[in-house]
Amino acid sequence: MPDLLHIDDLYASFNSIPTDSIVSRTVLDTDQIKAVAFGFAQGQELSEHTASMPAVIHFLKGEAHVALGDQEIEAVPGTWVHMPAKMAHSITAKSEVVMLLLLLK
User: Fold this and answer.
1) 18-38: burial string, b at 16+ Cβ within 10 Å, e else
2) For the chain, what is the domain count?
3) Residues 83, 48: contact at Cβ < 8 Å?
4) Residue 79 within a domain
5) Does 5 map to a domain?
6) Which CATH number is 27's domain given?
7) By CB neighbour count within 10 A (0-12 exposed, 13-18 middle, 19+ buried), where does 67 fall?
8) pTM of this prediction?
9) Which single residue of 34, 52, 82, 93 could bond 97 by disulfide (Cβ 3.0 to 4.6 Å)?
10) Element (H, E) at 70
C-alpha cells in the first residue's frame, strides 16, 4: 500500500510569497504523478513553455491570465485545467496566486 499523504490546507503554506517571486514546492513524486504547488506574487509570469506529459492545473487562490495554445482564460479559485502533453501555455498572476500542478506520468 502506498504511503498516505494528507495536507490540511495547501495554500496556507504559501502565506508569505516574496514580492517579485514565484515559489514552488514538490508535494508528491511517484511513478504515476508529480504534484507541485506554486505561489506567484502579483504580476509574476511563467513564460510560454510546454510539458512533456499531460498535466492538470488547479487554481486554489487568486486570479491569473492563462494562455493555453490558442485559447486564453481568466483563472479564479476553483479553475481546473487539463492540458495534453506538449501544449504551449503561460501563466500571469493578476493577484497573488496559489495553484497545484499535477504532472501525469
Assistant:
1) eeeebbeeeeeeeeeebbbbb
2) 1
3) no
4) yes
5) no
6) 2.60.120.10
7) middle
8) 0.92
9) 93
10) none
